[in-house]
Design goal:
Elements lengths: L7 E4 L5 E5 L2 E3 L1 H35 L4 H29 L8 H19 L1 H11 L8 H34 L5 H23 L7 H22 L19 H12 L2 H17 L5 H7 L4 H29 L1 H17 L11 H14 L1 H18 L5 H34 L9 H25 L2 H4 L24 H32 L2 H38 L10 H27 L3 H29 L16
Length: 650
């Protein structure tokens, strides 16, 4: 196990309470100091790790790089390194023993090298210019070509050394934080990281193109100070000899074979790996998100401020969401959020056909970001708890590294494919920047694929015991599973399902009423093209949407009644948690739709109004489809109502 001995609290002389984590003991003051050092290190790490990958694409684009080449430099080379390095570092640190611990040495040894690579990146253009002038082998080379090569080399160095930190920093928490404080610490950890991202986005990102050198030098200094304090302040306890493989065996074929056999032969774990990997492939195109926003007319300052405001609202969302993750089960939360997330991925299709004034687009996009934060907060807050609950604790570092290896392999493909996808689309459009409007196609495809894998994992989890009896599969153990404590989970609640249904009632009815009201207004405005679309097609479709929802709701309510009477269900009962959050989100989305239509008509852009109303109807259809899918996912397992699922025997 990662921590030896008892984790708990006790009393010392004078009534002062002490806290234990393995062989470590803390007073309240000492524990506060450790928390502060870890959170300060996280703040510095996030600030540095946000800065480099967001600014470098702008520099590479200014030097004339294609989207494909940007993807290769930013993702492919680091991914190739990660394939071999991340599993090695993770497993090696699990088994490493020294007087300074098993995690901190990996951070301390790489500290000067990581900071040096940041300095080299800061002076990359100066270095490449000096080489062109003074090297006989490069005097005939174009300065921009040498500059791109220098950035690629130094960025690869940066990623190589940052892998050591990224691979062991998060494992350190489990080794030095008492168990009773882990949940609160992870909540504070998420909030500090999000706050660091917000500060960077609002105050720093807009300066990236002009002040790259100064920003990278500042990042090197901040990171050096932050992690120097961490390494000097945080102490690891004593560890028992490494269980299983000896340390020397990590480099041997037996160790490699055992790693792959234990990690990749169980279909349940493979489904989770596939979900995370395919999700990572979809997010691989986010490197080009800044170029989409610029294509829509936004400045870097606007992009940064929009991201910062979204991140500030995310702090509140994460704080609130973290309360419900364990109560609803992190795997269930991830499944529900992923299904509704498909709708979120698809929504930007409207910008293929519509271009609004940049200030209008800014406020519309910012509004959508804000109302989406609670659903996004659930997704973010469920990540680490999902791994803690689903992966065996005796092999936690190993399974996290196995997942990282799998994700890296898929991201390696995505890094080339995403840039090539945009280049091909841009070439077909005949307008290079227009290709960025098709980013949603890439994210939607991988969102669907990753969600399908997670649904498979969810159904397997139910077969393995679900809320009441799940223990992580462990073929190396005599019983075939690793015993873990059962956490109380709240099942579907009829009261909150009823509220969710009323919110969805309002969504479909207000959409139908809104379409009728806009049609009358359009007639008065003399915009007959949009009027006939709304009257002749959209209003009848909206009534079909209402009918479909009524039928679906009727079936769910019937099943709720059967569950209360102890009868067999026909379909299934969706959990109320994420459904409640998502229903509020999509109801609020109607306000954005109304603003879009009003702005379009006032600008005499009737086609835009038609596109936005079509998008609103499509959202309604997809939300109803998502609820129907959730019923099918729960079919055969959601047999109780108003009970704790951990106490119910499936």
């Amino acid at each position: 196990m990662g921590i030896d001995g008892l984790k708990g609290a006790g009393q010392v002389g004078g009534g002062h309470e002490i806290y234990r984590c393995g062989t470590l003991t803390y007073t309240k003051v000492a524990l506060t100091a450790v928390f502060a050092a870890l959170l300060w290190g996280d703040f510095c790490y996030v600030l540095m790790d946000s800065m480099v990958p967001s600014i470098l694409p702008l520099k590479l684009k200014a030097l004339g790089c294609s989207n494909t080449l940007i993807g290769i430099i930013m993702t492919t080379a680091p991914s190739l390194l990660g394939i071999g390095m991340v599993p090695y570092i993770s497993v090696k640190s699990d088994r490493y023993r020294s007087r300074w611990g098993r995690r901190i040495p990996f951070i301390a040894w790489t500290l000067p090298f990581l900071c040096s690579s940041l300095v080299l990146l800061a002076y990359s253009e100066d270095i490449s210019g000096w080489l062109v002038k003074n090297s006989p082998f490069l005097q005939d080379s174009a300065p921009t070509t040498v500059a791109i090569a220098a950035i690629a080399l130094f960025y690869t160095m940066f990623r190589f050394f940052s892998m050591f930190v990224g691979s062991v920093f998060f494992y350190l928490f489990n080794d030095v934080v008492p168990a009773q404080f882990l949940a609160r610490f992870f909540g504070a950890f998420r909030i500090v990281g999000t706050a660091a991202g917000a500060i960077y986005s609002y105050f720093i990102f807009g300066l990236g193109e002009v002040y790259m050198k100064e920003l990278f030098l500042g990042a090197a200094l901040i990171y050096f100070l932050g992690f120097s304090i961490l390494c000097l302040t945080v102490r690891e306890g004593k560890y028992s000899p490494a269980e299983g493989l000896a340390v020397s065996a990590v480099n041997r074929w037996a160790g490699i074979r055992s790693f792959f056999k234990e990690s990749f032969t169980n279909s349940f774990y493979l489904s989770i790996f596939m979900f995370v990997g395919l999700k990572g492939m979809g997010e691989g195109i986010n490197t080009f998100g800044v170029f989409f926003n610029r294509e829509m007319g936004l400045t870097l300052e606007q992009i940064g401020r929009m991201a910062a405001i979204g991140q500030v609202s995310a702090v509140v969302a994460i704080y609130v969401s973290a309360i419900f993750i364990d109560r609803w089960n992190p795997l269930r939360v991830a499944v529900y959020v992923s299904i509704f997330g498909i709708i979120h991925s698809l929504m930007p299709w409207t910008w293929i056909f519509v271009t609004l004034p940049s200030h209008v687009f800014f406020w519309l996009l910012l509004s959508w970001i804000i109302i989406s934060q609670f659903q996004a907060g659930l997704a973010g807050a469920s990540g680490m708890p999902l791994y803690v609950r689903m992966f065996p604790q005796s092999r936690f570092g190993q399974f996290c590294s196995a997942q990282g290896l799998f994700t890296t392999l898929l991201t390696l493909v995505a890094s080339v494919g995403a840039g090539l996808f945009i280049d091909v689309i841009s070439s077909a459009c005949g307008y290079p920047e227009f290709g960025y409007r098709f980013i949603f196609l890439w994210t939607t495809v991988f969102s669907i694929a990753s969600t399908a894998c997670l649904v498979v994992a969810y159904r397997k989890w139910y077969h393995l015991g679900g809320d009441a009896h799940f223990n992580p599969p462990a073929p190396w153990a005599a019983e075939g599973v690793e015993k873990t404590p059962i956490v109380t989970t709240v099942g579907p609640q009829s009261y909150w399902l009823g509220i969710s249904f009323r919110i969805l009632d309002a969504m479909v009815w207000l959409n139908a009423i809104g379409i009728a009201g806009f049609a009358i207004w359009m007639l008065n405005q003399g915009t007959l093209f949009s009027f006939w679309w709304h009257v002749g097609l959209f209003f009848p479709i909206s009534l079909v949407v209402v009918w479909l929802w009524i039928q679906l709701k009727k079936g769910i309510l019937a099943d709720i009644g059967k569950a209360q009477r102890g009868e067999k269900l026909i379909n299934g009962i969706p959990h109320h948690g994420v459904l409640f959050i998502a229903s509020i989100k999509f109801l609020l989305a109607l306000l954005i739709w109304g603003v879009q239509v009003i702005v379009s008509i006032n600008l005499k852009e009737e086609v835009d109004a038609v596109v936005f109303t079509l998008a609103s109807l499509l959202i309604d259809f997809l939300v109803i489809g998502a609820v129907w899918l959730l019923c099918r996912v729960e079919r055969g397992f959601s047999v109780t109502i108003d009970r704790n699922l951990s106490e119910a025997v499936a």
